[in-house]
Amino acid sequence: MSGDDANTNTNNIVLHNLKFLDLSCSKLTKTPNFNQIPNLERLNLGFCLDLLEVHTSVGALQRLVYLSLSGCSYLEHLPESLGNLVCLKELNVSYCTIKQLPQTIGNLRNLVLLNLTYCHNLKSLPNTITRLNRLETLDLYHCLNLEELPENLDSLECLENLIASSTGVKHLPDAVTRLKCLKTLDLHHFLSIKMPLNLSSVCFDTEVSQNLVYLILSCCIQLKEFPESLGSLTNLSKLDLSHNVIQELPSSIGNLTKLVHLNLTYCQNLKRLPATTSRLKSLKTIQLHGCGSLECLPEDIEQIEDLENLIVSSTSITSLPNTIRRCKCLKMLNVHDCKSLSYLPPALGDIQSLEVLRASSSAIMAIPDSICISKSLKILDFRGCSNLHKLPAYLSNIESLEEIYISGTNVAQLPHSIDGYKEP
C-alpha cells in the first residue's frame, strides 16, 4: 500500500465511539473538521485563547448535548450551522467577543442553558431566540453593550432564571410579567429601572408572583420605591435591594412568609424597617450594613423566629430592642462601627444560640455580665472600642469561647478568672 493510500484511509476513519472531546486551553486557531466524530456528545473548547473560527462541520454533531466556548476571547463569530445541533442542551459562550448570535439559534429546541456572560461586544439577541421553548436559564450578566431584550420574551415558556444584571438594557419588556415559570429575576446594576409599571406587574401577576423565588435589584440606582404588590411574591426566598436609594419598604413585605434572606446593605436612605417585618417567620439573615440613616429595629424582633444572622454594622442605631434576648436561633450579631450604640441589651446572654458577637469600632461602653452564661459563644470582637474599659468578671464561664479581640480598647487588665487566657 502506498503512503498516499495510507493517509487517505487514515483521514476517512470515523470514530463512532468517541463521546467526549476536551480541547480546552489548547493553542487552536481553528477547530478541526468534526465529520469523523458524528456521535460526540460533549465538546469543550473553553479558554482556547487563540481560537478564531469554529468549523461549520460542528453542525454535523447531531448528538451533541454540551458545547463550551467559554473564554475564547478572540472568537467573534459563530457559524450558522450551530442551529443544526438539535440535541444541544447547554451552550456556553461566556467571555467571548461575539457581536451577535446566529439566527439559527432558534432551532436549538432542546437548549436548557444559554450562558452569554461577559460577552461585552454583544449588542442584541436575535428574535429567533424566543423559539427556545425549553430554555430554563438565560444568563446575560455583564453584557455591557446589550441594549434590549426581545419584546416577546414570554415565548420562553420554561424560562426559570433570567439574569440581565450589569447590561446596557434600558427597558424591561412587559413580557417579563408573563414568564409563568420564572423563579429568578436578577437585575443587579440595571441602571435604568426606576419603578416601572411592569415591575409592579411582576409582583401583581398571580402566576408569576407565586413562582418567583429570587429577586435581585441591587445597585439599581434609580430605584426609589417599591410597590405594595411586593407582598404578592409569596414564595420569595431571597430579596436583594442593596445599594439603592429607597427610603422605606412597603408594609406588605410582612406577607413574604417564606423569605429567608433580606439584603438591604448600603441602602443609606433607609430610616426604618416596617413593623410588619416581624411577621417574616422564615427569615434567617437580615443584612443592613451601611444603612447610615437607620436608627432602630422593630421592637418585636423576637417574632422573627428563625433569625440566625443580624447584621446592622455601620448604621446609626442607638440601641437594640431588649426583646432580642428571645431570638432563640440567633447565631451572629454584628454591630461593628455603630458609632451611636453605647450599650448592648442587659439580657443578651439569654441568647443561648449566639456564636459570634462583633461590636468592633463601635461606641460600646460595657459588655453585659449576662454574656457569661452563654453556652455557644465562640467569638467576642470588641476591637477599637475605645470607650470599653473592662470585661465581665466571669468571662471564663463561657466554655465555648475560642477568640477574644480587645485590641484598641481601654481595657487595662483581664479579669482574674481568665488570667491564663491568651488572646489569639
Automatic annotation (TrEMBL):
Instruction: Give the SUPFAM superfamilies listed for this entry.
Output: L domain-like, RNI-like
Q: Which UniProt keywords apply?
A: Leucine-rich repeat, Repeat
Q: Which InterPro entries does this UniProt record tie to the protein?
A: Leu-rich_rpt, Leu-rich_rpt_typical-subtyp, LRR-SigEffector_domain, LRR_dom_sf, LRR_R13L4/SHOC2-like
The residues covered by the Disease resistance R13L4/SHOC-2-like LRR domain are: 30-142, 212-290
Q: Which GO terms describe its biological process?
A: defense response; response to other organism
Check the record and name the Pfam families matching this protein: LRR_14
- What Gene3D superfamilies does the database record attribute to this sequence? Ribonuclease Inhibitor
Q: What is this protein called?
A: NB-ARC domains-containing protein
